[in-house]
Amino acid sequence: MVTLTVKNQIVKIEAGELVSYKVEGHEYIHQKGSPGWRSSDTEMFPVIGPTNEANFRVITPKGEAIQDQHGLLREMEYHNTSQTNNKAIFTKSYNKGTLVKNAKHPSKSTEEYVSWPYDFIFEKRYELLENGLQISFKVSGEPGMPFMLGYHPAFKLHTKNASIVTPERTISLQEVLDVGHRALPVLNCNAITLRDGGELTIRTEGFGNFMLWTEVANMLCIEPISFYPYTVGQTQLHSGFQSLEEDDKYFSVFITPTN
Questions:
Q1: What are the pLDDT digits (tens) for 91-103?
Q2: Is 101 exposed, middle or buried (0-12, 13-18, 19+ CB in 10 A)?
């Protein structure tokens, strides 16, 4: 367990996963074992969305890749490469063509292994600041590699009337529940505020969109995404790819609490 502290803020990270963010004792992160989801955060890479109706295949410039829902990164282990009192860096490295065990097999998938035809290094950086938590991502790899990126944190809800405020509208928790597993899209948006007693603002750089998901009233996933996958059919997921060029790609999420 990695613990970061700045004044009245405490962050706990387990194997690269954000498992706790407390400010003056108030917990903002969904706790494992509580109803809703078995995790507290994860990443969706290099694909966002389901692939089962496409026979778990996604088109790339190097041919079809075997991918399950939300990609293969979540099946890999993070390595802690750097740590201070208020910063920690975790990385995952992948060699093209390596078979990765698929945790969804056999109960939810026919594919025992998933793979990707490109090398990449994925870095996740936590930095606890005076006014909140910054989580940054760096994607490095082969020039021309296609990818999508989504960050999938789950926030603990403390009230029965939580709402989500965007620049365009206010969304009730019931609206998110009604959408179900597809998740509710908030497109062309870089900032969202969760009102749940106090306020928690999530600002992003590089993503451009959000989707909101929950199936219970005690947690809410507010997910920055580079592409909302349900705008196309599963066989057309490749239309949502962006391409890695010579330079690395950077994405950031800033979580700022106000009570």
A1: 999 999 999 999 9
A2: exposed
Q: Where are the domains of the chain?
A: 2-258
Q: How far apart are CA 23 and CA 9, in angstroms?
A: 5
3-state helix, strand, coil in the chain (%, to 5): 10, 50, 40
pLDDT > 70 in the chain, percent: 100
Tokens of 248: 């690395």
- Using CA atoms of 137, 141, 146, 152 in order, give the dihedral in degrees to the nearest 10: -20
Please tell us whether the domain made up of 2-258 is placed in CATH 3.40.50.300. Answer: no
Half-sphere exposure (Cβ direction) of 91: Cα atoms closer than 13 Å: 11
> What is the residue whose two structure tokens read 């078979």?
99
Environment class of 48 (CB within 10 Å of its CB; exposed 0-12, middle 13-18, buried 19+): buried
- Contact predicate 146/63, CB 8 Å: no
Q: Express each pLDDT in 49-78 by its tens digit.
A: 999 999 999 999 999 999 999 999 999 999
Token pair belonging to 232 = 């196309």
- Model pTM above 0.90: yes
